[in-house]
Amino acid sequence: MYRTHTCGELNMKDTGKDVILCGWVQKSRDLGGMTFVDLRDRYGITQLVFNMDSNSDLCEKARKLGREFVIQATGKVKERSNKNHKIPTGEIEIEVTELNILNRSEIPPFTIEEDTDGGEELRMKYRYLDLRRNSVKNNIILRHQVAQEVRKYMDSIGFIEVETPVLVNSTPEGARDFVVPSRMQPGTFYALPQSPQTLKQLLMVAGFDKYFQIVKCFRDEDLRADRQPEFTQIDCEMSFVERDEILDTFEGLAKYIFKQIKGIEFSEPLIKLPYQDAMEYYGSDKPDLRFGMKFVNLTDIVKGHDFIVFDTAEYIGGINAEGCAGYTRKQLDELTEFVKKPQTGAKGLIYLRYNTDGTLKSSVDKFYSAEELKKWADAMNAKPGDLILILAGEKKKTLTALSDLRLEMGNRLGFRAKDKFFPLWVVDFPLLEWDEEAKRFFAMHHPFTSPKPEDLPLMETDPGKVRANAYDLVINGVEIGGGSIRIHDSEIQKLMFKVLGFTDQDAIRQFGFLMNAFKYGAPPHGGMAFGFDRLVAMIAGQDSIRDFIAFPKNNSGKDVMLDAPGPISGMQLDELMIDIRKPKKD
Amino acid sequence: MYRTHTCGELNMKDTGKDVILCGWVQKSRDLGGMTFVDLRDRYGITQLVFNMDSNSDLCEKARKLGREFVIQATGKVKERSNKNHKIPTGEIEIEVTELNILNRSEIPPFTIEEDTDGGEELRMKYRYLDLRRNSVKNNIILRHQVAQEVRKYMDSIGFIEVETPVLVNSTPEGARDFVVPSRMQPGTFYALPQSPQTLKQLLMVAGFDKYFQIVKCFRDEDLRADRQPEFTQIDCEMSFVERDEILDTFEGLAKYIFKQIKGIEFSEPLIKLPYQDAMEYYGSDKPDLRFGMKFVNLTDIVKGHDFIVFDTAEYIGGINAEGCAGYTRKQLDELTEFVKKPQTGAKGLIYLRYNTDGTLKSSVDKFYSAEELKKWADAMNAKPGDLILILAGEKKKTLTALSDLRLEMGNRLGFRAKDKFFPLWVVDFPLLEWDEEAKRFFAMHHPFTSPKPEDLPLMETDPGKVRANAYDLVINGVEIGGGSIRIHDSEIQKLMFKVLGFTDQDAIRQFGFLMNAFKYGAPPHGGMAFGFDRLVAMIAGQDSIRDFIAFPKNNSGKDVMLDAPGPISGMQLDELMIDIRKPKKD
Lengths: 586, 586
What we know:
2 copies of one chain form a homodimer.
Chain A: E1 18-30, E2 34-41, E3 44-51, H1 56-63, E4 70-79, E5 92-103, H2 120-125, H3 127-130, H4 134-156, E6 160-161, E7 179-181, E8 189-191, H5 197-205, E9 210-218, E10 230-239, H6 243-262, E11 272-274, H7 275-282, E12 296-297, H8 299-302, H9 308-311, E13 315-321, H10 329-340, E14 350-354, E15 360-362, H11 370-379, E16 387-393, H12 395-412, E17 423-427, E18 432-435, E19 440-443, H13 458-461, E20 470-475, E21 478-485, H14 490-499, H15 504-517, E22 525-531, H16 532-539, H17 570-576, E23 578-580
């Protein structure tokens, strides 16, 4: 037996016990007469002590241990004189009587410590060493815990986890597929699934009633920061349900996870915010509601005073930064710079200070009387001490810019703490998006998303106005999951394809097997999918999903540790009957 | 709300309740005044009744329902006059007051019943309809339950489920890889993992201590019956453990699953049968121990009596079929035919009847006296009424043929019941296999499998004799899982590569990243992997893994439902910078 205990479990109750521990040398300190070694494993750190007086040979051996050596130490648990109350094992140490080097280690390319000296590239290349660091290790353990809880909950409410295949068929809509050449059917290809969307709908046709799966999905996209070519979804679908039963089900899941993992209870039902309102009041379909600062439409109030910027604007909107009337010129200039940066793209920022003495001071005083400004303040529901920030311009752009400004103010005012969570539903998304280039509508979600029944008459008269029976779960300004009620009525499906400009042949070629399945008794159904990597990162209060994936790829889609992708042999190409094109020289 | 209850939950306690049910029309019977409809969902079947007298319009509507129509029925729960005690809902029926057709169905291509009229190909093409059949549906639900229990158990003993990547690097040893051309790095390829072997070893280097994963693996092999190009493993690895701790851990898992799922308790520790003994006594490294019929080596006893078949044989072995002395000539001829078929390949079968009257009768009486034959019977531990079956020839082939014969006798005697389970460990597999063609040793498991420490000296003198620290879990003659202690000592690894005929460069090119990782403190570790599809099929007492996969592929690796693999567009080929070769005309 290699060990009797782990490095995370011994404490004062164990003093006097003879134990054997195994682990990695975190660090050692040689104090002349004594040598201390911090021994680390997955479970914690335990201090080993070697005494020159009692066993000089052993102590000499301990002195020669390098960082990250793998050792086995036998000894007795003793109370420490110099206690460390920060760790559970900090009150004891092991007086070692036998030391066994299980494996040596070269000097690691970076220090295995929270404040490591290793850069990102180096840590990616030696990911197996980076995973030894507590924070990275704990992220992966958290991921495991969340997955376990998801499965426990879904199982408890009657969902069946069904594994859908990874080698599927290429679908022409959506993002780019990864493909796999078939050796047995030369010239043909499997595709890796972008999501099990059609398969889970087939499971509903099959009568599975409640399906879920924690499943890898694949998209061959040019990677933006923090996108991964392979990512994990919690994929779900249910039959014989209306929208609110789906929302209740997954609201239950979200609440359960936050309670189990974070100890946070959301007792109230989550807000269901219509998409239109989300855009109008927060300028985003994924608003961060950890704080208010709702937009107020000032267009009607401020126009008609010869201020050309306002008079020519389609939309003028403001937010009230409470208690910020004291902002300095410099701070206001910073905010102006912020909204004028290209990503935000506003032309300028207008402010109105509601001073604590009740006076009002704006950047456009010469166009507006104090009385007029008071009307603004009233519309904004501002009180003395508040600062009103206003943007004007084309409506859609201005709402987006105002959203950026609102989040920036949220950051500045400390409203966006990582340990505070505000989940909500955004509902009633538009069914269709008009593509100016293609001169046609595209499905905002996918072509099987059901319109809201009350908007059905608009399908033929004003398709752009039709709302979908679609919904997103948004937490802290991040879309954590989304889904919809699907179309199960073949007449509505035909209408949808017509609006999307598909001929019957197009529809059959692209979605034939699903359409065919729907002929044999498709139940009403709907579902949703959560971004699992994103959910776990959110729960940990972090932004990067990469830190929650054991072996992530970099922004070029490379695994620098495995050195993948890589060349394959000529024999493999021969078997697959494919050739690699020579790069063009130009 | 679509429904208040499912079709599997209403019983006598619910009589009088107003309910709404949804589901598929299993069948309907029109008895003139009454129409009965069996309504089916995932949970069961409930009988609906429509009465011509009380509501003729509704009854007319019900009469027109086709098989597999999706309907919603509102009504009252009543006690049935004609009770069906075979199903939980068989004592009640629903007197329907409202009927709503949610979706129509064309006539299905085969009947959705246990005794379906659909052939395999047709059912594969319409898999979503085949999945509606109880037996198929229940297989998939069983799979879910087993997966849940595996995860529950592994989590409870401190294992962390870590998702390893699907897009990895191609490894030259082992089976053929499926590959994925990279668009971002043209001319290079990802490979799909045959197993996460190296990644789980890296997780041990990373200090994860106890890892598991239920994970898809991929092998581009020519498919034999019941092999799938994508299959699922329960993959596990642990650090700081010796062999028996690993066996105890996974024996615990196997016992837990059988207890939870089948209610079967294996209270005794499982047998650990050395590979040599398995071969010697059962002619197989995966013996079916639901019954005895152990081989007895008769070579020394039967030689030297001028019977040329025996005298020239390397090995002569027998099995005792207890109570079979009454076998007829015809039965014995059948057995002779059985052993002579090409797959088994014996030259003939010699029998010895130990008649109930104590006399002995063999097929080679003219060479052996009754006294001699009695010696055989004694060696076989036979008693009056038994039948001894003997094969002779080259040892390895004869052991294999005797194994076939033993299993055949097991079948004939009803010893191989599907609901009886006999799990055991087979241990101490040979480390190396000599390949006559390549004139070199190959690793029987993989090149990281540790030799047994006591056999280390043989590595240089007689490598073929070295036993590996490797083990298989065998149940009912099927290998359910296997694994090994890995080499963590770089000197032993070097020796292993030397014996395998690898140069240092070979080793670095093929396993460089793992060898490199091992330089930074690799702990002693080992693990195992279970064939999950196989395990679930075994638990259900069935042979075909295909029936336990929601959307399996056929023997040509095709998904005939999705029609995958299929062609991809010229644009996709352009983006991937690959060309498809034209098939050679010859």
